[in-house]
Amino acid sequence: MNQPLPRWADLLLLPAINLAVALLAAGVMVALVGQSPLDVLVVLVRGAFGTERGLSYTLYYATTFVFTGLAVAVAFHGGLFNIGGEGQAIVGGLGTGMAALWWSASLPAWAMLPLMLLAGALFGMLWAAVPAVLQAYRGSHVVITTIMFNFLASSLLVYLLVNHLKVPGKMAVESAAFGASAKVPAMHALLAGMGLQWPASPLNASVLLALFAALGVYLLLWHTRVGYALRATGASPGAAAYAGIRPRRQVVLAMGVSGALAGMVAMNELAGVSGRLILEYAGGAGFTGIAVALMGRNHPGGIVAASVLFGALFQGGAELSFDVPGFTRDMVVMLQGFIVLFSGAMAYVLAPAVQRALAAIERASAAQGVARG
Amino acid sequence: MTTAMPRTGPLAIEMLGVDKRFGPVLANDDVQLRVEQATLHAIVGENGAGKSTLMSVLYGFYACDAGTIRVMGRPANISNSQQAIALGIGMVHQHFMLVETLSGLDNVMLGAEPHPLLHRAEALARGRLDALMAATGLRVHLGAMVSDMPVGERQRLEILKALYRGARILILDEPTAVLTPQEVGQLFGVLEQLRAQGTTILLITHKLKEVMRWCSRVTVMRAGRVVHDCAVADTSIALLAEAMVGRKLQLERSDATVPPARAPTAAPLLRARALEWRDAQGVARLRGVDLSLRAGEIVGVAGVSGNGQSELLELLAGLLAPHRGTLELGEKHFGAGAWIDPRTARLLGIAHVPEDRHGRALVLGFEAWESAVLGYEWLADYCRRGWMDHRAMRRATDAMMERFDVRPRNGRLLSARFSGGNQQKLVLARELGQSPRVLLVGQPTRGVDIGAIEFIYAQLRALRDAGCALLVVSGELDEILALSDRVIVMHQGRIAGELDIAACSEARLGLLMAGAAA
After folding, report:
1. Among candidates B342, B354, B390 on the partner chain, residue whose Cβ is nearest the Cβ of A244
2. Do B453 and B363 lie in a common domain?
């Protein structure tokens, strides 16, 4: 029964207010443990954006979140809640990693890197397609099955690493190193090639891939017939069926694209940084992706922005735990929790208040206009 | 035309000079409303005339910007629905406010439990409700789950809920939109009894026949203002309709709408034979239905809702596949094993205006220009090599809105934010846009205001005159009689009778609908 907020307020003002409230709430907690909220904020922001190195780390973290955030968003537009980004990223990593282990000795980089990308996307896609087919044709809900598939994926990774891919005789549970052709070039190396000085960091060319992926998702969803059918199914399965769109195929398609996006995480984490298949490279990014998509309103532009914010929290949080005595990483997790709470779960709690305030401003300016006229 | 009539009886509600503004829109403009106690008072008006806004002000959903309200003679300041309930105002919304997974009894008690312990509360409430039901004739199975109740019973439950909370003034928003003719009769019987017992009833409706038959006074609203207010005895359907839209209307068939002469032997455009369909529970919903549609005729399908009409439409549109039967469309033949699908149907010139406007015809979350190509998004006009041409889609939408007078003329507005009549006009514009050979229409004017009804009828007749075959399913006998050239009556999944329009009368159709032999 309320009027909707104007678009600009919905997309900019409200998220900004939500973020401010989250910071305020976190600030109260920081004050409670005896630190100065302002100092902590300054360290956090400076750590994330203040130095070239800090900025690089922020963008490196953000790259992974863009992939998982987009994965959640594509499924969401198809009317599905894909909680399995974590598992799909892990299995995608298996694809990327195995392609690199088998062929990186013989193939050059221009063939190897696309092959690794394809293998990762394909593995992620297939891993997501199983729950999708189960939902579309057998009615088992993807929320449940994708959660279960996360556990299956991480067990599968451990099994393969320990029993098949581990270098015999080494203690560390990790594969052999990939060949040089399987390495995504680091940004500092690329920039050095263009004559720019940049400190070494894990930031690699995958960040460009993430931006392309965001653009691709935007074009797919809003500018192609495939996207039209996918969104129609998500918004109204009955209307989609009426239009001759087959809802079951859309379920599989949405989850497949979603899984492929999650599978690309490996390009950043494995091909870009570790250079070998390791445990825990997804590191919960699949779940952070849910928060990122929530905060970014399931729009690629919003997701990129939210990813940078979460990347900043990760990087700034790491700085905090170094610089501020008695400030642990748990405090940063708490801050993330507040942001997810206020920007995601309670995103519209403040909407009526904002709307009333806007209406009051409008009335006041109208009254002023009348008085002047 | 507004008149301040001298009153005899005491007033239940008096609203004076009520203004309500939404942004730049003045939804209620200096509205005066006086309702006498223990009367059935109707408020009529087109969609967007401000009726619902006025009732929302009265029920405390909105605060009015100016004006005063008096309830039972005392000034009232109603800022939420609890206060309205405390003043003895009850509201039955068009879309019921019931919890489907609770029993009728629990729904009535919800928020007004007479005792903190559930079983005590239930016993107390059941006692009071049994007394209420006996006094009013509102019969409801209190123990049954709401999800198992038919629509008419849910509505009685809503009324009971309001009365249980002590309502002496009952507001009903479009109560008959979803009811069968028999249920409408029952409802008004109950309302009349409540009125006789002293309850004041405010009826918001589109259906002028019901106003004339059951109400004692009527207020007409147009564009946020009260334009007419009189005793029902002093007015007529024609006068009310004119007051609602501000001009004369043509709804009944006239000489100009008689179909052009056509050869009776014209080969049918669509012929369905021996259609059988069972629902998920295995209940037969269609039993051996034969149907043929010829160019240049409108075939009306009458029947009490739930007798297979909806399934028939969905089968012909390709949304359901029958368990037995065949379909011929010109040269093409379809059998139960390889039934037509919606896209093939469109390719073969079958357009479909579905009954379920919100669940099927439009994607409510899409902007109008995206909903305006639904089902045709693959046309080369809109889509080249998989890429959607937004500019062409918007241009087509603007043209549709212009041609069918969809208001507001804004293709960027969400489909959900158009009124029912304007949504239906947009759907018709889309389906008529591809010059179909066969048009299937379900409930062409459900929830549509009277001005738009006239327009929709004119469009359907024009399509018929252009040589299209139309199948119109409607729950409104008046609509069937006004549009059809031939009428099919369905009863329990069978065709109970088929009549030429000249042989139709309301009484005869009513008998067939009830299952009596022709």
Report:
1. B342
2. no
Listed by start position, the domains of chain A span 56-296
Quote the CA–CA distance of B456 and B202 in Å, as a whole number: 29
Task: Supply the pLDDT for residue A281.
Answer: 87
Q: Is the dihedral of CA B426, B430, B435, B441 positive or negative?
A: negative
Tokens of A84: 């399995």
Q: Which is it for the CA torsion B147, B149, B155, B158, positive or negative?
A: negative
Question: How many domains does chain B divide into?
Answer: 4
Same domain, residue pair B405 and B426: yes
HSE, CB side, 13 Å, CA atoms: give it for residue A336.
Answer: 24
Contacts of B181 (CB under 8 A, 6+ apart): B304, B477, B510
Domain boundary among B216, B232, B248: B248
Q: Give dist(CA B45, CA B351) in Å, integer.
A: 31
Chain A contact for B374, CB < 8 A? yes
Residue B321, Ramachandran bin (φ over 0: left; ψ between -120 and 50: alpha; else beta): beta
Furthest C-alpha separation in chain B: 74
**A242–B346 CB contact, under 8 Å:** no
Q: What is the ipTM of this complex?
A: 0.83
A/B interface, count of CB pairs below 8 Å = 73
- The two tokens of residue A22 are 């989250």
Mapped onto helix, strand or coil, the DSSP state of residue B307 is coil
C-beta atoms of A243 and B352 within 8 A: no
Residue A224 DSSP label:
B
- Rounded Cα–Cα distance for residues B215 and B234 (Å): 12
Q: Is the pLDDT of residue B460 over 90?
A: yes
Q: How many C-beta atoms lie closer than 10 Å to residue B133's C-beta?
A: 16
Domain coverage including residue B371? 356-435
In the predicted structure, residue B7 carries a pLDDT above the cut 60: no
Parallel, antiparallel or unpaired: strands B469-473 and B438-442: parallel
Tally the C-alpha atoms within 13 A of residue A166's C-alpha that lie toward its C-beta. 14
State the Cα angle at A349 between A347 and A351, rounded to 5°. 85
End position of a domain, from candidates B404, B435, B466: B435
Q: Looking at residues B14-41, what average pLDDT do you find? A: 87
CATH number assigned to the domain comprising residue B83: 3.40.50.300
- Contact at 8 Å (CB) between A253 and A224? no
Q: pLDDT tens across B276-286, in order?
A: 998 877 788 89
- Treating both helix axes as pointing N-terminal to C-terminal, what angle do B151-164 and B181-196 enclose, rounded to 10 degrees? 20
Q: Between chains, do B370 and A228 touch, taking CB under 8 Å as contact?
A: yes
For strand B270-278 and strand B324-329, is the pairing parallel, antiparallel, or unpaired?
antiparallel
B479 and chain A in contact, CB less than 8 A = no
Q: Which residue has the tokens 């040089």?
A: A180
Separation of alpha carbons A67 and A69, rounded Å: 6
- Asked if residues B202 and B39 have their Cβ atoms less than 8 Å apart, the reply is no
Average pLDDT over residues A83-100: 94
Same domain, B421 and B366: yes
Do B230 and B144 lie in one domain? The reply is no
Q: Please provide the size of chain B in residues.
A: 518
Q: How far is CA A362 from CA A7, A354, A355, in A?
A: 16, 12, 10
Q: What is d(CA B423, CA B405) in angstroms, rounded to the nearest whole number?
A: 11
B22 CB neighbour count, 10 Å cutoff: 13
CB A80 within 8 A of CB A227: no
